[in-house]
Amino acid sequence: MSSTLIETPPPADHASRDEVGRLVAIDWNSGATAADPASGRWLVAIDGSDCSLRAVAMAVRLAHGVPGAVIDLAYVHPWRVKEAAEAELPQRGWDISTASRAYLSQAGIGWRLHVRMGDAATELVALAASLGSRGIVIGSHGLTAMQSLMLGSVAYKVVHLSAVPVMIVR
Question: DSSP strand E in 18-131: where?
Answer without folding.
Answer: 23-29, 41-45, 70-77, 110-117
